[in-house]
Design brief:
The protein has about 750 residues and is an alpha/beta fold. It is about 25% helix and about 15% strand. The strands form four sheets. Strands 1, 2, 3, 4, 5, 6, 7, 8, 9, 12 and 13 form an eleven-stranded mixed β-sheet that branches. Helix 17 links the parallel strand 20 and strand 21. Helix 11 crosses helix 13. The site of CIS-heme D hydroxychlorin gamma-spirolactone 17R, 18S has 26 residues, from strand 3, strand 4, strand 5 and helix 9.
Length: about 750
């Protein structure tokens, strides 16, 4: 339809097409539970399992030893039209136990009852000790070839396409915790390369709390709920976390990132990813380069605001999981560019005075630019959460020729931890044979037996040397694709429990991060520290927190101290004067708006033309329109109906990136306190439904774009919002309003609505 003023990516048209398709097939609300609409009465005619939903895919069907089976994905799913036992015997009843008469005791011989209940009793496995809460997707990685000169890894050669599976996660919470808590996010990618699996197990924050793996249990025990009451869940705002990070000051830099907007992402699709450690790449000639890996999201890096994140945790604890799945379902495939910062592999492993083996340090992009080396597109949702997202097992030691590790003591400990943890979590040493973990490269190992062995190995000599199996398997050499560790020199040294002196600087890069933030971002950081330390019970912990802040920045310290009602201490170290790194700020650019959610408010009667027009404009921009009305159903004429996707009762502002009010809805019949506590008498007296007023005031507080057409401006007026406030587009035709909204969404939020004091 109309010309776009903002940059909408080329993908948007494709997405718009897919969303339009969904709309025309009646699938207008994202998140359809089944591949086809259910019928009202219980079906009675036997038929085979339904096909998978269009957006879903399972792991590729390779054998436990990495060989293509040629079997379609349906061949590893349920088959046949009739219910069977696990052995395939058909059943005639699964609703009643076998009893001695209809009122008699249950018989021990009921094998179906016992199989069903026993299996159910064992359905759960231990959740991950960290990163328990996650969501994942399948995709493809296409290499640009830009890294071909520095690594021989075949999947990084120009044009190589590699299937991937990516799992995003929070760190601290249990498997059922909320998505939008303040935390670091995991960003783990499994590349199924022809040379074996490569796992890049990273985070959305480029530094870590600790410099040595031996401290990992300490930081995690401190961050997890208190061991006596097991509260709080998935939070860092509590005494043990702050007790530890204020005593163990090497955590200062990472903690500051957590307190920044990076700790509360808007979407997994809008996060950067970082390998954190320095890796060593080696090319075909044996030359080495040190690198840091970065994932750059095409949609930019965006966050919620804290109040929004908290409301979301209650209204939709699955917010990030749903967002990822809905976007992929709608065809808004998220994309990231993989990039590397490269450094000469010098003996001291330093770059511009920064210790490359210290994972609490970054190298600013202004000093070492990120060179893009490939593009990842996530294009399918998993077809079974447990089989794929829960059972996927990442490991920092899953490496391919051309990529090697460094002496980073944090990385070294991880090389031990990841296999070890899977043995408990996945019940034995054969977790690599689970379908999602199977490599796509042929496996010829000498590992045998163990719990849940699913390969059927042949031969009699799983040992070397042997002659009985003809000497097989043979070892490879560099020319036949062997993974050969780079023979780096290990300098003669004494055995010590110690770290390099350069690891003692805990504050200069935290200060670098603070100085690189815009005033708006600094306000958010200040509020986060004030909230988190304010939730601590122990006075000493709060005071110690302020001492740490004084070593980052006096202004930050003073504002947090004011909020806590405590005096601001002086710095105990000289404050560094680093050059700010603008690349660290999230704000100030424009990005594609693919898959953004726009809520369109109507009273269900007036302004339906505007609703239709607004919907069309949202779809044209590659975004998702959700119509919000007093009650569910269809609006308008039968020939061209509008489906209501949210009602005043079910809608809450956190779900929408922007809201367009197409008219001024009068209080609906259910707008009274006894029915819906979101209503109140004073708001009802304005003549506008109180839920709509709440919707726009919350959206306003959270910096969201708000549009009004027709008499929608009345809603803003009754809500006490200025129609000329930044980020508000009031008046004009719906399509014009939507042009304004789309432009605003390209910048994510109307931050200029609020004046920062910092
Ligand atoms: Fe992990 N980490 N980690 N970690 N980590 C695990 O492995 C560990 C660290 C990260 O979606 C565990 O399979 C140690 C840094 C992600 O399945 C466990 C240390 C970074 C995930 C483990 C670290 C990460 C994990 C738990 C200190 C960013 C989720 C379950 C040396 C670069 C992967 C599992 C998924 C998971 C150990 C530090 C990222 C226990 C000992 C630094 C994204 O093995």
């Amino acid at each position: 339809m109309s010309e776009k003023k903002n940059p909408v990516s080329a993908a948007a048209e494709k997405i718009a097409g897919k969303v339009q398709d969904a709309v025309s097939t009646g699938n207008e609300i994202p998140g359809a539970p089944g591949p086809e609409p259910a019928q009202l009465d219980e079906p009675t005619k036997p038929r085979g399992p339904l096909p998978p939903k269009h957006d879903q895919r399972g792991p590729e069907t390779v054998s436990p030893t990495g060989q293509p089976t040629g079997a379609g994905q349906d061949k590893v799913a349920q088959g046949g039209a009739y219910l069977t036992t696990a052995q395939g015997a058909r059943l005639y009843d699964t609703d009643h136990s076998l009893k001695a008469g209809p009122r008699g005791p249950v018989l021990l011989q009921d094998h179906h009852l016992r199989e069903k209940i026993t299996h159910f009793d064992h359905e759960r496995i231990p959740e991950r000790v960290v990163h328990a809460r996650g969501a994942a997707a399948h995709g493809v990685f296409r290499a640009y070839g830009a890294a071909a000169g520095i690594t021989k890894a075949a999947f990084l050669a120009e044009g190589a396409e590699t299937p991937v599976f990516v799992r995003f996660s929070t760190v601290l919470g249990s498997r059922g915790s909320a998505d939008t808590v303040r935390d670091t996010r995991g960003f783990a990618t499994k590349f199924y390369t022809d040379e074996g699996v490569f796992d890049l197990v990273g985070n959305n924050i480029p530094v870590f709390f600790i410099q040595d793996a031996i401290k990992f249990p300490d930081i995690i025990h401190a961050g997890k709920p208190h061991p006596d009451r097991e509260i709080p869940q998935a939070q860092s705002a509590h005494d043990t976390f702050w007790d530890f990070v204020t005593l163990h000051t090497e955590a200062t830099h990472h903690t500051l990132w957590n307190m920044s907007d990076r700790g509360i992402p808007r979407s997994y699709r809008m996060m950067e990813g970082f390998g954190v450690h320095t890796f060593r790449l080696v090319n075909a000639e044996g030359a080495t380069t040190l690198v840091k890996f970065h994932w750059k999201p095409k949609l930019g890096v965006h966050s919620q605001v804290w109040e929004e994140a908290q409301i979301t945790a209650g209204m939709d604890p699955d917010f990030h999981r749903r967002d990822l799945a809905d976007a992929i379902e709608a065809g808004a495939f998220p994309q990231w560019e993989l990039g590397v910062q490269t450094f000469p592999d010098t003996e001291d492993q330093m770059f511009e005075g920064i210790d490359l083996l210290d994972p609490t340090k970054i190298v600013p992009e202004e000093l070492a630019p990120v060179r893009p080396i490939g593009l990842m597109t996530l294009n399918a949702n998993p077809s079974n959460y447990f089989a794929e997202t829960e059972q996927v097992a990442f490991h920092v030691g899953h490496l391919v020729p051309g990529i090697d590790v460094t002496n980073d003591a944090l990385m070294q400990g991880r090389l031990f931890s990841y296999v070890d943890t899977q043995i408990t979590r996945l019940g034995g040493p054969n977790f690599a044979q689970l379908p999602i973990n199977r490599t796509h490269a042929p496996v010829n190992d000498m590992l045998r037996d163990g719990m849940h062995q699913t390969a059927v190995h042949r031969g009699v000599a799983p040992y070397r040397p042997n002659s009985l199996d003809g000497g097989c398997p043979f070892v490879a050499g560099a020319d036949t694709g062997a993974y050969i560790e780079v023979p780096v020199e290990v300098p003669a040294a004494r055995k010590v429990r110690d770290a390099a002196a350069s690891f003692d600087d805990h504050f200069s890069q935290a200060r670098l991060f603070w100085l690189s933030m815009t005033p708006t971002e600094r306000e958010h950081i200040t509020a986060a520290y004030t909230f988190e330390l304010g939730k601590c019970w122990d006075q000493a912990v709060k005071e110690r927190g302020l001492k740490v802040l004084a070593n980052i920045d006096p202004q930050l310290c003073a504002h947090v101290a004011e909020g806590l009602g405590l005096p601001a201490p002086e710095a105990t170290v000289p404050l560094a004067s680093p050059e700010p790194s603008p690349a660290l700020s999230q704000l100030g650019h424009t990005w594609p708006v693919d898959g953004r959610i726009v809520g369109i408010v109507t009273d269900g009667e007036s302004g339906l033309d505007a609703v239709q027009e607004a919907r069309g404009a949202v779809l044209d921009a590659g975004m998702v329109p959700l119509v919000i009305a007093p009650s569910g159903g269809k609006l308008g004429p039968d020939s061209d109906p509008v489906t209501v996707q949210r009602t005043f009762t079910t809608a809450r502002s956190i779900e929408f990136d922007a809201i367009v009010v197409a008219c001024a809805p009068a209080p609906a019949p259910d707008a009274y306190g006894a029915r819906d506590a979101k209503t109140d008498d004073a708001a009802t007296a304005t003549g506008v439904d109180p839920r709509v007023l709440l919707l726009v005031t919350e959206a306003f507080r959270h910096g969201k774009a708000i549009g009004a057409c027709g008499d929608g401006a009345t809603v803003l007026e009754k809500a006490g919002l200025a129609t000329d406030a930044p980020g508000v587009v009031a008046g004009g035709a719906a399509s014009t309003v939507l042009d304004g909204i789309t432009e605003l969404l390209a910048g994510h939020r109307a931050w200029d609505r609020f004046t920062p004091a910092l």
